[in-house]
Amino acid sequence: MATATRSTKYRRQSDTDLSRMEIMEGAALCFEARGYSATSLDEVAARIASTKGRIYHHYASKAELFLDVYRTGMMMNFQAIEPILERDMPPIERLKAVLKAHVMCVIRTKAFQNVVGQGVDMLRHGTMPANEHAELRQLAQLRDTYSEHFSKVLEDAMAAGDIEFANIKIALNSVFMCINGPIVWFTPRKGQDQKEIEAVADECVLYAIRLLGYTGKTP
Amino acid sequence: MATATRSTKYRRQSDTDLSRMEIMEGAALCFEARGYSATSLDEVAARIASTKGRIYHHYASKAELFLDVYRTGMMMNFQAIEPILERDMPPIERLKAVLKAHVMCVIRTKAFQNVVGQGVDMLRHGTMPANEHAELRQLAQLRDTYSEHFSKVLEDAMAAGDIEFANIKIALNSVFMCINGPIVWFTPRKGQDQKEIEAVADECVLYAIRLLGYTGKTP
DNA sequence: ACTTGAACATACTATCGAGTATGTTGTCAA
DNA sequence: TTGACAACATACTCGATAGTATGTTCAAGT
Fold first, then answer.
1. PROSITE patterns attached here (chains A, B) (predicted)?
2. B9 lies in the same domain as B92
């Protein structure tokens, strides 16, 4: 019986997760298109051919839904780069690989990454109700951790003499602006296959490492 | 009498412009902080220690106010770079100068530039009431013209052999992401003088031209 | 002095959307 | 089979805010 109960529980949990993911995907698209506050939950519901009741069954508030999309977007980023951080390779190659993985991830999860950006802004400007503000701060720490990973990779490559920059804060910000660019300007074309997308990503990575003073050869 | 009438008219026009500018500055700060739709006109009014009545005396709608801020932001950009475009100088130097001027301008007019960004997004995603949509398109054309100026400067520098890139659209987008970065991440410190701000701008420009393959010497 | 109109402020309306309360359906366990 | 509960849908409430209608002030023209 214990087994039966547990399997049931798991299946249900799985169903719930699926439903929440569907809601999040609709929400991410709406938030991306119109921004957090301009998006009504009725719109989100309509996008997934459903109703507001379903959303409120899974989320206590609009803010919680937003935060879940935010968190999920960050998780996608971590999953994209963490395997590479553990691999043993020359710093400059790791840098390239991490940048590439990030760009590919943001292109694939564009809507979610846009929400992440909105979340960062929200914290910066201190909007959003006070009760959810705490979770927003927590998520911002997650973002800082993510940023720290890049800092490390940058410093390693710097120490190896492959790149050079003056102020690491400005350099890192500029790199992020560059590799996050597709979130803003990338629009998927019809019939655009994986190869073409990779070509775009490669060019972004090229510009990002050039920005860091990489010349293509180790002098 | 004609003279008197005209001088009166001018003074009044000047007063009106001043009042509108004050409203726009408050609006720009609010829109930057909370986004277009999350910003109420009561907030904007409060920020300039005034009331909604004053805003509606000068603007027919919230959208019109937004569009005026947008337009003003673009004008600021044009005024920053146009003198340089007319100067006679080597392409690479002109490129550097234009980038520097742009960065200084966005730092100085941060809130307005943020609104410009929101306006671009709005057009891209087709939000905003249909009647104002036309003017939004018009403003987007202004933005395209601005972008065209940079394209020209890039191509000249490319022809002179000072920089090189694969796809000009991606390169230009990346450059813009980089030099518009301060709109997102720059926060003015107290007691930060002009010199320090220029140092930040210079570093942004450095990264932007590096991104374009500039090595510092003409090979 | 008095009229006029610009430049506001004040007081109100009407709508939209977040949140809630309640109803319906299907599934599983006992 | 029935009771319970998850997973929704439907139907409401209520506060916030864009927009409007009206009142007030003051400076300039006559």
1. HTH_TETR_2
2. no
B23 and B75 part of one domain: no
Looking at the fold, whether B113 and B177 belong to one and the same domain comes out as yes
Is residue B189 classed as helix, strand or coil in its secondary structure? coil
Residues making up chain A, counted from first to last: 219
User: Chain A contacts of B184, Cβ < 8 Å?
Assistant: 121, 177
Answer yes or no: do A211 and B211 touch at CB < 8 A.
yes
Give the closest-approach CA distance of A3 to chain B in angstroms.
Answer: 50
Residues 53-72 of B with CB under 7 A from strand C: 53-54, 57-58
The CATH number of whichever domain residue A161 belongs to comes to: 1.10.357.10
Token couple for B203: 């570093």
Q: Which range of residues forms the domain containing residue A19? A: 1-59
Chain B: closest CA distance from residue A93 (Å): 18
| Cβ contact, residue pair A178, B174, below 8 Å | yes
**DSSP of A163-191:** ---S-HHHHHHHHHHHHTHHHHH--PPTT
Q: What spatial distance separates the first Cα and last Cα of chain A, rounded to whole Å?
A: 68
Instruction: Answer yes or no: do A196 and A89 share one domain.
Output: yes
Nearest DNA or RNA nucleotide to B39 (CA to C1'): D17
- Which nucleotide's C1' sits nearest to the alpha carbon of B43? D17
Instruction: Please list the pLDDT of chain A residue by residue as tens digits (219 residues).
Output: 333 333 444 445 777 889 999 999 999 999 999 999 999 999 999 999 999 999 999 999 999 999 999 999 999 999 999 999 999 999 999 999 999 999 999 999 999 999 999 999 999 887 887 788 899 999 999 999 999 999 999 999 999 999 999 999 999 999 999 999 999 999 999 999 999 999 999 999 999 999 999 997 644
Q: How many structural domains are present in chain B? A: 2
Q: Which residue has the tokens 């999920």?
A: A72
Taking a C-beta distance cutoff of 8 angstroms, is the pair B180, B113 a contact? yes
Last residue of a domain, one of B15, B30, B59: B59
Query: Does any CB of chain B come closer than 8 Å to the CB of residue A28?
Result: no
